[in-house]
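Hi L.,

You mentioned the student needs an example of a multi-chain input paired with its predicted structure. This one should do, with 909 residues in total across all chains.
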Amino acid sequence: MTVSPAGSSVPRIEGPLKVSGIATYTSDFNFPGLLYAVPVCATIGSGTIAGLDTSVAGSMPGVQAVYHRANIGRIYRSAPDEGLGTHLDERRPPFEDDVIRYYGQYVAAAVADTYEQAIAAANAVKVTYDAKEPDVRDQLEPEGQPNLDGERGDPDAAFDSAPVKIDQTYSTPVETHNPIELHASVAVWDGQDFTLYETTQGVVNHRDVAAEMLGVPKERVRVISRFLGSGFGGKLFPWPHSFIAAAAARDLNRPVKLVVSRDMMFQNVGHRPRTQQRIRLGAGSDGKLVALMHDSLNHTSILDDYQENCSEATPYSYSTPNFRATSGLARRNVGTPTSMRGPGAVPGLYALESAMDELAIALGIDPVELRLRNEPNKDEGLDLPFSSRHLVECLAVGAKRFGWSGRDPRVGSMRKNGLILGWGVAGCSWIAERFAAQVAVDLRDDGSARVATATQDIGTGTYTVLANVVSEKTGIPANKIEVVLGDTNLPPGPISGGSMVTASVIPAVSQAIESAQQRILMAAIETEGTPFYGLEADALAFSGGIVHRKNEGPERGMAFEKILAKAKARSTSGLGKAEATFGSEDRKFSQHSFGAQFAEVTWQPEIARLRVSRVVTVIDAGRIINPKPARNQIEGSVVMGVGMALLEATEYDARFGAPINNNLADYMVATNADAPQIEVTFLDYPDRVLNDMGARGVGEIGLAGIAAAITAAVYHATGVRVRNLPVRLEELLA
Amino acid sequence: MRPTEVFAPAEPPADGQSARKNQLAVTLRVNGESVALQIDPRTTLLDCLRETMRLTGTKKGCDHGQCGACTVHVNGRRVNSCLTFAVMHQGDDITTIEGLGRPGSLHPVQAAFLEHDAYQCGYCTPGQIMSAAALLEEPCGATDADVKEAMSGNICRCGAYPNIVSAIQDVRSER
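Structure written out for the whole complex:
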């Protein structure tokens, strides 16, 4: 028997479907009578609709309807809920009023028999506006008093009297998620029930929100997302296009497909907001921090309060007796921001870790050594011990693998093959928490298992990791385990966010398997013809798929599928339920993952060519269930980090509020040729506070710290400290 | 996991009155089979494959020739199918991911992508694989840097580039 338990690098179980084009993503669904919807977007950034003329569009070939405020029908608001329950970031339903608050806001939608007809009709809708000048300024100032997010000691006094000080402001631009899969909805209405095929990182939440906004009971909405062409946070929560498609499908009694175009994805489906962060560090000449202050601002939309939470990782990163974090919002005429991979910590650690690098230079202390000197022995923000923190080892291992001891700290002093080298380092961290999860596991009479939960695989490997976990816990080989995800008909599972799915489902899987196995034991003692007939269930054990007496080894037992066959049962099904730790007030440990990023850049001042050539990343993320997709996650984060550091920024036109680089040629993301040589090492310290396998998630941590490591390397190579991402070549041309 | 869990109906397209107006006749040769179509001249090859022929393995990522997700082979060369109209391909030989190989009989590039975990979400993957399969016949240098350059028209936002390069180099070393 080939067992593929956790810890082995087995290929993804859904891989054959992905490499052959069979995997079905949202916009691949097609139904008889399908219609195509194309939205009409506002061409101003602020103002009101003065006139909307659909007479030409409505009479064009194939057009079934042109929807707008007056004829879309009622789309309700979803009332606020606790935490991330029933959540969406852009709360205003589409077409709710005639006020335009950001460029690209949907004002109408054409629905036609073919896609080409729908585009032509959408282009023929005539909209006039009373326009005002939009506010899309980069410079942020807080609206009202900033929030106090955390404080200890007397940071102002300690900073004022500190022998060495850093006081700098760092900013990060609007970043757009840009998953290659376009957001899409395919809405099917059968006269009573909606089936919504959605590009979502959370089928259950999407179902709950959609039911409330469409004004129907939850039971009347089914949301399906079998495969997601990644999301990076942009598909965590529903966006207005989904309700346009659903409302049109109900009104026309036909299936409706709406695919959001790439340019609309810069407007209508969220972005990481611009952040502006002042960091103040006060240190003694020994390098020990005496004060740390992190004051952050982010922009948000006119109607919604999106908090980026930049100081999320700051209170526990370093030991300091005096600390304060504040945050504030600045309102702009932009679409509503949303979570983007590592929200809060990723821009926050860019600022904090950049300041630490500047402090190391001011002190004349090696930046690795500076971090070691400020290593805390507990989470000083929460006053709790860490469940598992091995940042020191991450730095030590990374320094060794990178060759850090060969670093000459003088700017521009290192060369290789005629190029100037720059080396930089940064720490990284991300939360390690669980959402509530329910999982069903069926053990079947052919020796196979089925595991089902309404979470989804967004590319991180959830299908495979669930098979690995069930395989380890049952002894059933991974290729005999069917994993079913992405459907609200399944037991409710978590959103794919916060790097929490793996950790969240493990306890529920364990419980479901125990429950299914217990029923097999009961079948064993109640079924004539099994060697266990008439025994007590507690005299039996389950090992590697074999039922046997506790006082004997499994070699004298019977395979579970044979017991099921003798009992004439197809399967036993167990349901597991696990509670959330995320948002819990009652905690005994501070739970986070940690890591170290080491980056090398090459700089050719003669031709102004800057490249990231090499990255060494060491990650402390508990036990790694399947190293293959886990490594891929970290490598992919580093590649995205190259984009964050050097390439990515959404730019707004001050006159109309339009994102002017709204395409993949002008908004640059890292291509294959931009990817550096990447070496990933996982430390293997299971965090059993989180779950019985000690596994955390790895989807986000690799993007934390990488931009700071790269900009530190850029400083080392060029002498230019970039505090406003991304690094632009013109800033390096002094 | 079985493909049967993935519902992909294959009914013929909606055939409303309006869909027949202003259409042109074209015969495409797709994955070795000739297909006679009446098609809107505005229809891109990509939308023709996906929405008319229901060959949804070819993906739309930008509709502007900037991401490479829609890469197919036209007469053996890789082409962004979003940048060309279907009616321009009378008699052309078009190969999509569906024609390259299926589970059980994967093309070597598909098998290498599986083995090397050369994807995450899988959405750009058909385009990456079609580009890579075409690259095998192109005058591409031997180094990783050459492959990276030749594959930079295909964006993988998940950033699986290191594994994409190793998968392609693995196939090239076998030839």
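You could point out the following to them. The domain at 342-433+585-732 of chain A is CATH 3.30.365.10 (Aldehyde Oxidoreductase; domain 4). The radius of gyration of chain A is 27 Å.

Best wishes,
N.
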